[in-house]
Write a structure and sequence with these properties.
mainly alpha; Growth Hormone, Chain: A
Length: about 450
């Protein structure tokens, strides 16, 4: 029995759709279906079936959500260590310094692999690069689940960190390539919640899983989530030129890409300085905040950890609000400058709170406002170059600055606290960092060039 659509009707309907409906039908089924004796569905049939259900915009959002899931799963695996840190120290017989490297290795790996991730993105395409990153996370978590010693567990974290480094570069590049600069604000705002959402899930998921199956159960949970993300990424994610009926130009995945325009672009380095300085203060404060609340303000450690988690929870609301503002008003530069100035004020007060009653409103305000900076940077960065195929390189440089800030912030702030003689001394390195960040954003807002959708090479030409 023939389940395919008669060719004479197919040609007529496809011709009608291709001529009068925008965007044109696209093909999201990369295979021919044969079932119940049916003939193979023709290419035009597949375009007709899928084109009626999924427009190019629908496909873009499907890709964004698949990439978002992959990103959140990677963060869950990154932040599965802190909730079970005590169990790891006891079971593996390691000191606190060694245990601390279980988290720090992620940032170090991100620094070392940020630029190589660019090459992988261009060599293996968005789908292949993302699958490679997820495979590293799955393999690393699987290795950790069987780890007999701290050394093997540290090795597993290096493998997982490799996946994190790849996804951190690949994910925003994929979002940027599927949405034009004028439309990328909202999807990038949603994607920017990947760290607070993933870390929140990790903190809440790890405790019951550990209670039921031990700390290794948390690692097996990471493997399971990684496999799910891997399958969805493989089924959904492609690059626009592979599915889109219109030519969106060259994108990561091509060959013969030259990176000189990226490294010579001062606007990209201004955004990278902004990101480095921001992450320096953000992670520098959140690392020591629970101890400050406990020792200086007399808050018990459980409540202190809860207050710190408010930062991540309000990050989610702030990222969504920033995405909406960017999409609605399309004025990213004023948003970035305003957020940087407000954060400069907030960061200078972090270790000077006089009362426990001020902790919650301070952390909520800080979490809501601060996330405007990375969300806006991720939205602006791909549009600072006229060549869409270099978006991955831009994200790689930003990722390097981000991880450098995360690596440097905690020890520098800790040393200042140690030698400064008071908690208030910790405000100074964060203030200096945010002054540098704000200066870079102001310079960028004055001289930075952002290429509109139609003026980027390969777009709408």
């Amino acid at each position: 029995m023939d389940y395919s659509i008669p060719s004479r009707y197919t040609r007529f309907i496809c011709s009608f759709l291709e001529g009068y409906i925008q965007p044109k039908p696209i093909n999201i089924l990369p295979w021919n279906l044969t079932f119940m004796g049916a003939k193979k569905i023709t290419s035009c049939n597949r375009r007709l079936i899928t084109g009626g259900l999924f427009s190019l915009k629908h496909k873009a959002w499907a890709v964004m959500w698949a990439v978002y899931l992959s990103s959140v799963v990677v963060v869950i695996n990154q932040y599965k260590v802190p909730p079970v840190m005590a169990a790891l120290i006891d079971n593996l017989q390691v000191d606190m310094g060694t245990a601390g490297w279980l988290m720090s290795l992620f940032s170090l790996t991100g620094i070392l692999l940020a630029l190589p991730a660019i090459i992988l993105l261009n060599r293996f395409s968005p789908k292949g690069s993302g699958l490679l990153g997820l495979a590293c996370v799955i393999l690393g978590s699987l290795t950790g689940a069987f780890a007999p010693s701290a050394r093997v567990l540290l090795l597993s974290r290096v493998i997982e960190g490799t996946g994190m480094a790849l996804i951190a570069v690949i994910a925003p590049a994929i979002v940027a390539m599927w949405f034009d600069p004028g439309e990328v604000g909202l999807p990038m705002g949603i994607w920017s919640t990947w760290v607070p959402v993933g870390s929140t899930i990790a903190y809440n998921l790890a405790t019951p899983v550990q209670a039921a199956y031990g700390w290794r159960g948390v690692w097996w949970c990471g493997v399971f989530l990684g496999v799910i993300a891997f399958i969805i990424h493989a089924l959904v994610v492609t690059k626009p030129g592979q599915d889109a009926p219109r030519d969106r130009g060259h994108h990561p995945g091509g060959t013969g890409v030259h990176y000189a325009p990226v490294f010579k672009n001062p606007d990209i380095w201004l955004l990278t300085i902004t990101f480095f300085s921001f992450m320096f203060g953000a992670v520098g404060y959140s690392t020591w905040a629970p101890t400050f609340y406990k020792d200086a303000l007399g808050v018990n450690i459980t409540t202190a950890n809860f207050y710190t988690s408010l930062l991540y929870l309000t990050n989610i609301a702030g990222a969504l609000a920033c995405g909406w503002i960017l999409g609605r008003f399309k004025k990213p530069k004023p948003v970035l400058v305003t957020a940087s100035i407000l954060c400069t004020i907030l960061y200078s007060l972090g270790f000077s709170l006089p009362s426990p009653a001020l902790i919650a409103p301070y952390m909520m305000a800080r979490g809501f406002i601060a996330v405007f900076i990375p969300t806006t940077i991720f939205s602006l960065a791909p549009a600072t170059i006229p060549h869409p195929q270099l978006s991955g390189a831009v994200m790689g440089i930003l990722s390097m600055g981000q991880n450098l800030g995360m690596l440097a912030g905690p020890p520098v702030v800790g040393q200042v606290l140690h030698y400064g003689g008071s908690w208030q001394a910790g405000n100074y390195p964060m203030l200096l960092g945010m002054l540098l960040s704000t200066t870079a954003t102001i310079i960028f807002s004055i001289r930075g060039q952002v290429f509109p959708a139609g003026k980027r090479a390969g777009l709408d030409q």
